[in-house]
Amino acid sequence: MGGVARAGLYARISQDTDGTGLGVARQLEDCHRLADSLGWPVAGEYVDNDISAYSGKRRPEYQRMLSDIADGVIDAVIVYHLDRLTRRPLELEQFLAVLDQAGVRNVRFVSGPADLSTGDGLLVVRMLAAVAANESASKARRIMRKNDQSAAAGQPHRGSTRPFGYEADFVTINPTEAQIVREVAARYIAGESLRSVATDLNARGIPTVRGSEWRTSTLRNVLVNPRYAGQRVHRGQIVGPGIWEPILSMEDHRRILAVSAEKQRAGRRTPQRYLLSGLLRCSRCGKPMYSSARVNRRRYVCIAGPDHGGCGRMTISAEPVEEILAEAVLYRLDSPDLIAAMTGRDSTDAQTQAVTAEYDAAQARMEELATMYGAGEITKTEWLTAKRPLQQRLEHAALRLARLTKTSALTGLVGNGDQLRASWAELNLSRQHAIVKAVLDHAIIKPGSPRAMVVELDRIEPVWRL
């Protein structure tokens, strides 16, 4: 080719561990020095930082360089070493084909002699590429074997970013973040949507490990990850317990997976707009009633047809029935029957009875401590010291009872109906629905005046879960 060669400089490094890009910067300096010595003006730089040439992953700048060669933007290439250009013989042949089609013969390497203009030079380059590929394959096998051994020993997989809830060593629990993980898990198990939880965390100024806002996908990845239940995952499979302390119990992990699977089956994609979705039944045919808006009026209707199978003869205004049943739920939270159900006092299950006895014993000790402090028999410091472990026992027993009685959504709410009523309007709809659903199995809607905006109480027959 006549004229002065317009050179493209290519630099690449597989792993930029500190994120500074110094490795590729040094390569470019040497490439510029070689271009100056050859008298080739530099027409462009192409840099793929932190990308392997053996993995087969797409290298954007490498592809751009090939396009510029094909389009005649550059007619020479300078690379620090052949293994920076490629470590795959097939990819080398594709590179040579692009050069041949564009008529480019000017290719130089800073390190290692290579002349692509002769048959012997091409043979050397192909042999070097084969050697580089073999080295990469051997290294990959060694790394894979090391990873297998680490996984079998329960060692954590150390990525570039620590998992939320754990310190930089991937093992030590971060107490503040771990509490957030437990809170999110409890709310998700209770029925609250990930969208709702993410919105709340962002509003509270709680960032992810990278300092960004939470997304539903990020929260889901945390919740379904077995590592939070202390399990080591390798190649997509749980291979055994990890050496770190779990943040969540295996029981909660399984419940999270069950809730996630149920949500996927349900296929809900839009935010919930109706408090009683899935909780109303038509008294005429017994079929579920569905939310249905008309102009500026929200309604629940029994829908006829093959998809729904209802009679199509029942309608009720949404706002009144939601207000009535929400108030009934709040009232029921303070009822003796619900308190008995929550505490397991009416249960015949031996495990529930044992946890109930544990809860009652801790509660009795708390009351005894308070009496002793009030009588001046112990100091405030002694009272606080003795109170802390008892408080932990109470909270632990309450959580176990909630799981055994399947009332996790109501933890901390039973007996506090009046307080919850005062803050009810501040709760998001997903949380309100979870609370209602934990208490109410469904409500039967009876016939009434179709034009009446005021819903009579005798039209609603609640069927309580608890």
UniProtKB/TrEMBL annotation:
All copies of domain Recombinase, residue ranges: 163-266
SMART domains per record: Resolvase
Annotated PROSITE patterns: RECOMBINASE_DNA_BIND (PS51737), RECOMBINASES_3 (PS51736)
Highest taxon of the lineage: Bacteria
Signal peptide positions (record): none
Limits of the Resolvase/invertase-type recombinase catalytic domain: 6-154
Entries under InterPro entries matching the protein: DNA_bind_recomb_sf, DNA_bind_recombinase_dom, Resolv_N, Resolvase-like_N_sf, SSR_resolvase, Zn_ribbon_recom_dom
Protein name per UniProt: Recombinase family protein
Organism: Nocardioides fonticola
